[in-house]
Write a structure and sequence with these properties.
mainly alpha; two-stranded antiparallel sheet; 2% strand
């Protein structure tokens, strides 16, 4: 908690120092979120149901993915952006010798404050949509759990991707590929061909991560999906730890 308070204080100072940039970032993110909501309203303007999805379900999907992305951005995005540059520049020395687990310290020492405001807007819209769905307390619990799992998936996938910079100098050019892939699959899984559904719900379950919260609300037999995601992320966590440890052994300092 002391570390998080320090990270918050430093991030707040940076936010105030570059508040114009931060405010513009918040405004742009809000605009993109609004466009997604309007797009959903247009999709269902003629039909109340499209391929088995109601308008409220689709809008809940959009806002839920925004919740996941904003939560990831708040705690991890700045750390991941800085980590790749530090690895390539040989500037990890002070991070590795601190009396904390370097795996966590390097990616959690900054908080993206503009994303907090975006998250609040997204959460308010999500709460309104959940009321329309007439959900029960258990539904809310599994919905929150699935959002946390979504954040965990993005974090772990990015952690592995960024750690590959220990081996591949040009891999930083692919930064943001995980977020772009999540955005690509931020649609109901039923609209994708069967082969795409199979690949991205089992082998690389990004499609499952984006759709799982709404599937749970719909009671679409998705408890097995939830268990699978938990097992998959546990495996992904251990893989990311192994990649990080192997990578730090290859690290070369610029000093």
């Amino acid at each position: 908690m002391k570390f998080l308070r320090l990270a918050w204080r430093l991030s707040l100072q940076e936010f105030l120092a570059y508040r114009t940039t931060s405010i513009l970032t918040f405004i742009l993110a809000t605009m993109f979120f609004s466009v997604e909501i309007i797009t959903g309203l247009v999709y269902f303007s003629m039909e109340n149901s499209v391929n088995g999805w109601q308008q409220v379900d689709y809008l809940l999907l959009v806002t839920t993915i925004s919740n996941i992305v904003y939560l990831y951005n708040i705690f991890f995005i700045i750390g991941h952006e800085n980590l790749s540059m530090k690895i390539l520049g040989g500037q990890l020395d002070y991070d590795l010798i601190r009396p904390m687990n370097s795996y966590w310290y390097i990616v959690t020492n900054c908080i993206d404050i503009p994303s907090i405001f975006n998250l609040i807007i997204s959460l308010v819209v999500s709460a309104f949509l959940l009321i329309q769905e007439h959900v029960h307390l258990l539904d809310i619990f599994v919905y929150i759990l699935s959002i946390i799992l979504g954040v965990g998936f993005i974090f772990l996938a990015n952690q592995i991707a960024v750690s590959l910079s220990f081996w591949l100098d040009g891999f930083s050019a692919l930064g943001g590929i995980i977020e772009n892939t999540v955005n690509l699959f931020s649609l109901p899984m039923q609209i994708f061909p069967q082969i795409i559904q199979m690949i991205f719900t089992t082998i690389v379950p990004i499609l499952l991560v984006t759709n799982l919260p709404v599937l749970l609300i719909q009671h679409a037999g998705s408890w097995n999906y939830l268990i699978y995601i938990i097992i998959f992320e546990v495996m992904l966590f251990y893989i990311s730890k192994l990649v990080w440890r192997a990578g730090t052994k290859r690290y070369l300092s610029a000093n």
